[in-house]
Amino acid sequence: RRLNIHRRKMAKDTDNSLYPIAVLIDELRNDDVQLRLNSIKKLSTIALALGDERTRSELLPFLTDTLDDDDEVLWALAEQLGDKDFVVFVGGPEYAHTLLPPLESLATVEETVVRDKAVESLRAVATHHSTEHLEEYFVPMIKRLTSGEWFTSRTSACGLFAVAYSNCTTETKEELRLSFRSLCGDDTPMVRRAAAGKLGEFVAVVEPEHVKQDLIPLFHSLATDEQDSVRLLAVEACAAISNILGKEDVEALVIPTLNAASKDKSWRVRYMVADKFTELQQAVGSELTKTNLVHAFASLLKDPEAEVRAASSNRLRDFCERLGEEYRIDSILTQIMPCIQQLVNDANQHVKSALASVIMGLSPIVGKDNTIEHLLPLFLTQLKDECPEVRLNIISSLESVNKVIGISQLSQSLLPAIVELAEDTKWRVRLAIIEYMPLLAEQLGVEVFEEKLNTLCMQWLMDNVYAIREAATMNLQHLVQKFGSEWARVAILPKVLGMAQDTNYLHRLTTLFAVNVLVEVCTPEVTKTSMLPVVVKLSEDRVANVRFNVAKSLTHIGQKMESSLVESDIVPLLEKLSKDDDADVRYFSAEALAAISEHLGTVSME
Predict the structure, then answer these.
(1) What angle do CA 513, 514, 517 make, to 5 degrees?
(2) Which of 189, 216, 188 has its CA nearest to residue 202?
(3) In terms of CB atoms within 10 Å, which of 41, 61, 174, 296 comes out highest?
(4) C-alpha separations of 237 from 182, 186, 196, 232, 463 in Å
(5) Is the pTM of the predicted complex or chain greater than 0.90?
């Protein structure tokens, strides 16, 4: 009916200002979802064309009445109405409440993502409401959603209490707390789940005395709910409640629930506790952590479910780091270390991998003597683990151990593990170990590196996978930065440049790629005497790909050499290549000549 009214009105009025709303209505009724979606995305433009008064009186009522549409269109509408600029199009904060009706309707639809976006937009619009308008428009909307017949409206209501509460009167605040209580006790698990998920943010805005009186009972009820999906979300509220309450109240009202959750019959609840443990630890404080949480964390490290052990392992270093200094070492060695020793040999590789990513970080926490006595044997065990990811995670964290005990303690087991990873059948594993090679080189020292690892670096240059060859050339650059140009001339360049004689043209190309990066870190003298002659020789290669890459390499070399050498050796060679039979060679040679000419011009000006 509204559609017909709009069309009759447009038929009688020739005013061009009606055209945007006509387009909107036509496209919203189009069978093509994409057209309807495009129309919604132009909502701001249409509202601007209509003006704020007609947007309030015509556009918003029309949108409210035409919400039966595809979920993607409804989601886009919810997003548009919550945009920070859309409040301006309805006349500013004074009229922000006019956006509530369509968003309220969107907050009740069946599709979860649409409801969530509508709630997000309602929360944004709420910030533009004055206290009077919150009382007059926003709070009544919350009450309507809370008492809605379908669970969809009640789940949406849960996300709106926190944004409205702080700016309401005392009487209204009490009503909101009562409404929230009804949602926490709702018959539908989905509603209780939504309430549990929003309990923490509601606690953060409610006065401390009302938290103890009204919200703690709700917390206990949700934490013991028959549905594990409700109980696990209640765990998230523990930190928020602990931040509000004093130490004695936390110990009496929160800790028992937290301990119960760490032993919950559902592994999902225990997983949530493990995942949020460091946040909970920070919220309850050092003293309560010592008396209550250390034991709970140790039990999670020994949990029968691998997912829980992996989640708690990921939090291991942060948990130990945040323990109070007066009891940190003792708690780690007596309660945590036995669990770590079991996890090192865990049957699940994801658990071992998670542990390997953090265990090295314990070295600075426990100190040199304890690292050597307790952690070093575990490092060595993991370096020999059958899972590549475990060994890789240990190697990637060597720096923290090196600062505490030096790498010599690990070198005997470290080098075989590196060699094995460097030759792993999975190219991504090989790539990862290449990325850590400069760090390893720095920690092992030049002598050990040359003896044990230099050959590996050369092997990577001839790998079957291009990404490995590319990473290997960059690795050489980083190594030269650490060990110096003279070291490169003696230890690296003879082998790299020797590949220029290889029968495989890909290896000859790799020589040029290596030259491109090495000229950046080697002295001009090394470049002139060692690299340039090899590049010149490759300019006569029978493969066109090699020849045009010579042109690229000459560009890099030319920008690092003195002008006289460039003009006498490099420019004539590029001019020769610019007359090559191959079009690509001619093109890249011309590009190189232009770049070098520009460089020479800049140098002469200086």
Answers:
(1) 95
(2) 216
(3) 296
(4) 18, 18, 8, 10, 52
(5) no
23-27: long-range contacts at Cβ-Cβ below 8 A with a sequence spacing of 24 or more? 24/59, 24/62, 25/62
- Would you state the structure tokens that stand for residue 296, as one six-digit string? 């709970």
- Which tens digit of pLDDT belongs to each residue from 456-476? 888 888 888 889 889 989 988
Supply 443's token pair. 């920690």
Token pair 């996890």 is found at 343
Beta carbons within 8 Å of 182's beta carbon, 6+ residues apart = 146
What residue ranges of the chain have pLDDT lower than 50?
A: 1-16, 603-606
Q: Which residues contact 273 (CB under 8 A, 6 or more apart)?
A: 235, 258, 261, 262, 264, 280, 296, 300
Residue type, 466: Y
**Residue 342 and residue 340: Cα distance in Å, rounded?**
5
C-alpha to C-alpha distance for 314 and 355, rounded to whole angstroms: 6
- Kindly report the number of other CB atoms within 10 A of residue 146's CB atom: 22
For the chain, report the end-to-end CA distance as a whole number of angstroms: 78
Q: How many CB atoms lie within 10 A of CB 252?
A: 12
Contact of 570 with 536, CB cutoff 8 Å: no
pLDDT of residue 512: 92
> What is each CA distance from 94 to 78, 79, 91, 174, in whole angstroms?
20, 21, 7, 26
